[in-house]
Amino acid sequence: MAEAAMNPVAHGEHYTSFEFGDLVIISLRDGYVDMPPSRLRNDSDEPLDPLPDAVPLVGGNLRLSVNAFLVIDGARSLLVDTGASNSWHSTMGSLLDGLREAGIGRETITDVAITHTHVDHVNGLIAPDGSDAFPELEQIFVGAGDVATFTGPLARFRDRVVAVEDQLAVNDRIVALPFVGHTPGHTVYDVTSSAGRLLVWGDTVHVPSLQFTQPEVTWEFDGDQPKARAARELLLDRLTGLGYFVAGAHLDSPGIGYVTRSGVGYDLHYVT
Q: DSSP letters along 104-133, please?
């Protein structure tokens, strides 16, 4: 029943479009990044050992999908996260290709929401040629604890940053909710449609094959691992509510599913 409310309607190499009641959600695949399994940490902040057999490896590494999400409400849209552009690995930087495939002009993006300011989420504000990726950009919603990272090449966007210090209505469909831990400003975005709700939760989970069944497992780059663990537990509990979906930056592309309880953990069910 949950899956029927979020219906895939079109896809290409770098995007998948979903009907979600009276909204359209477009998942944009920026690419992927390979990371060593030692990034996964136990509650003593030591590499998780042994690694459960259920966790797939590619060439000995964890392969993390990198996704962003466009929420379209008629003529209004909000892009949550922007990918890495050409600032990190060559396996990333396809977000603008995804927009083109989906028939979305860069100039139509006026509002962007950033879950946090790691490079694979914010550096896509700058196109590979150095120009503004979204030339008509007006507002960038960013958790207050991450605003200070808008320096260097990103400094030119500082005057458009809206700092999210507490729960904030981005518009009448989307609410920004600070859930710090992964970074000091990590923020999730709660989207309401006529068919249910969608939580766009950034880096709450990095390895979906493990961190749903064992949500206590953290990530080396969680700035405050106890807070990141607590945020994950709170958000997973919220997602078991009727009609709730989740969109994750590092869930397997296209990165949208729903969550059910399973023993002491949870199961993720991808929308296909």
A: --GGG--EEEES--SHHHHGGGB-TTSSBS
Backbone phi and psi for residue 7, each to the nearest 5 degrees, phi listed first: -115, 120
The percent of residues in the chain predicted with pLDDT above 70, rounded, is 99
pLDDT digits (tens, 9 = 90+) for 38-76: 999 999 999 999 999 999 999 999 999 999 999 999 999
Domain borders along the chain are 3-270
CATH no. of 3-270: 3.60.15.10
Q: What angle do CA 101, 27, 6 make, to 5 degrees?
A: 120
Write the secondary structure of 43-61 as one string of H (helix), E (strand) and C (coil).
CCCCECCCCCCCCCCECCE
Decide the pairing of beta strands 187-193 and 174-178: antiparallel
| pTM confidence score | 0.97
Classify 156 as helix, strand or coil.
Answer: helix
Tokens linked to 30: 């920026």
Q: How far is CA 67 from the centre of its chain?
A: 6
Q: How far is CA 193 from the centre of its chain?
A: 18
Sheet holding 161-164, edge to edge: 7-11, 15-20, 23-35, 62-73, 76-80, 111-114, 139-143, 161-164
Q: Is the CA virtual torsion 215, 266, 4, 272 positive or negative?
A: positive
